[in-house]
Amino acid sequence: MMVSLIVVSITFVDDVNTSEASIAVVGLGFYLAFFSIGMGPGAWLIPSEVFPSSVRTKAMSVATFFNRLTGTLMSSTFLSTASAMSWTGAFLLLAAVCTISALFIFFYLPETKGRSLEDMSMYFAEITGDQSLLEAEDKAVEKRRSTAAAEIEAVTLS
């Protein structure tokens, strides 16, 4: 996404001619394509994989609200930003925001592949120090162990 925005910003350095306008349109097309398979669905994908069932609906509502709010703010302020900074500056600013977002996601967003919602809850409880959740999980693990031990004993006796 960042590279696409940089390509678009370069086309606006001088007066735009027909070939540069074509490059800008292609660059925006690539930006939209990468956004659609990358950060675009993030507002729905990340909360659905990170939050436990008890708060997932509220988290999805908050994520959707901020997604729509950000889209509205971007749409309503882009032209004034481009007028104040220049078109090149506006697209470079967006490229910088994309870069910062990508770095944040890479370094701080946990990998959810192969992890259950309970694992994610425990992950966040550990990094936030939420003792109540950690204690509840310890009790649940102990209960599962005792149930499994009882089932093994029942099978062994029969």
Automatic annotation (TrEMBL):
The chain crosses the membrane at residues 28-47, 85-109. It is found in: Membrane. It is a multi-pass membrane protein. One of its GO terms (molecular function) is transmembrane transporter activity. Residues 1-113 form the Major facilitator superfamily (MFS) profile domain. One of its GO terms (cellular component) is membrane. It comes from the Eukaryota. Its main location: membrane. Keywords: Membrane, Transmembrane, Transmembrane helix, Transport. It catalyses: D-mannose(out) = D-mannose(in); D-fructose(out) = D-fructose(in); D-glucosamine(out) = D-glucosamine(in); D-galactose(in) = D-galactose(out). PROSITE patterns: MFS. This is Hexose transporter 1. Homodimer.
